[in-house]
Design a protein that fits this description.
- The protein has a single domain, classed as Divalent-metal-dependent TIM barrel enzymes (TIM Barrel, Alpha-Beta Barrel), CATH 3.20.20.150.
- The longest helix is centred in the N-terminal third of the chain and has 21 residues.
- The strands form two sheets. It has an eight-stranded parallel beta barrel, surrounded by five helices. Strands 8-9 form a two-stranded antiparallel ribbon.
- α5 links the parallel β5 and β6.
- It is of the alpha/beta class and 288 residues long.
- It has nine helices and ten strands.
- Bound molecules: zinc ion.
């Protein structure tokens, strides 16, 4: 099982600290933001202790394909109304792609974007335009477009949106997908028919294009278009379903990354990873 979680990247050890944090949870995969997810302030990667981190990853037999970078949410490539916002997004994504390469990772997860009332098709075409610009000088780092819940004017809540983007860009071989279990359910997919869902994904995009899974329970009922993650077993999806995804033979090579909420201001990942590795649910959060 390849299981990891979102880990922080912060002073003084930065990327080395991220790897240490992941190992402390018994994770064999990890996901980082190269800075705060909600802004564009970034430290120089020369401070990241990359070589020491890489050594630690090798010692733990964690391949670079199990290290995932997530682009900040503020990047909106679907923006058609403000040219300066779009340009900023493209420019920043380019820098994020460079940082992903610098730490030695191969995949960056990206929320496709929100069309902000321009309409879905116009938004999707704008994303294609933005990706073409951002990928112009890149031939190795892959972009994994995330399946979204469809809240607001978010695009990417249908597999078809992602397939459309992939089919239109100049470098389709660099466009991959990140499935989010919470988002797919919130978007209205019947995730409990999981093999059928994988078949549909395979028909529309191709299962070989799946790079990473965000494994989250959902606070909301299927189709709610809400996007609120819950701890494993404390939402509408339930532990049995999430364990099935983690242990599914068709997905054995895909890293599963937890983005579940902190409990009493502490990361829940150690116990959640233990639950997934053992297959045994633990009712560990007191509900007052
Ligand atoms: Zn995401």
């Amino acid at each position: 099982m390849i299981i990891g979680c979102h880990v922080s990247l912060s002073a003084p050890d930065y990327y080395l600290g991220s790897v240490k944090e992941a190992l402390s949870y018994d994770a064999n995969a990890l996901m980082i933001y190269t800075g705060a997810p909600q802004n564009t302030f970034r430290k120089n990667t020369s401070d990241f202790k990359i070589e020491e981190a890489k050594r630690l990853l090798t010692e733990a037999s964690i391949p670079s394909s199990s290290v995932i970078v997530h682009a900040p949410y503020i990047i909106n490539l679907a923006n058609t109304t403000k040219p300066e916002t779009f340009e900023l997004a493209v420019d920043f994504l380019k820098q994020e792609i460079d940082r992903t390469r610098q730490i030695g990772a191969k995949v960056i997860v990206l929320h496709p974007g929100s069309h902000v009332n321009a309409g879905e098709e116009i938004g999707l075409d704008r994303i294609v335009e933005g990706l073409n610009m951002a990928l112009a000088d890149n031939d190795d780092v892959e972009i994994a477009l995330e399946t979204m819940s469809g809240k607001g004017s978010e695009l990417g809540y249908r597999f078809e949106h992602l397939a459309y983007i992939k089919s239109k860009v100049v470098k389709p071989h660099l466009i991959k997908v990140c499935m989010d279990t919470c988002h797919m359910s919130d978007a209205g997919y019947d995730v409990f028919q999981f093999d059928k869902l994988l078949d549909e994904f395979d028909n529309v995009i191709g299962l070989e294009n799946l790079r990473v899974i965000h494994l989250n329970d959902s606070k909301n009922e299927p189709g709610a278009k809400k996007d609120r993650h819950a701890n494993l077993g404390y939402g509408r999806l339930g532990f049995d379903f999430l364990y099935l995804v983690t242990s599914h033979p068709r997905l054995s090579s895909i890293p599963k990354i937890l983005e579940t909420p902190f409990v009493n201001e502490l990361p829940p990942y150690g116990i959640e990873i233990e639950m997934l590795r053992s297959g045994n649910y633990i009712d560990w959060i007191s509900q007052e």
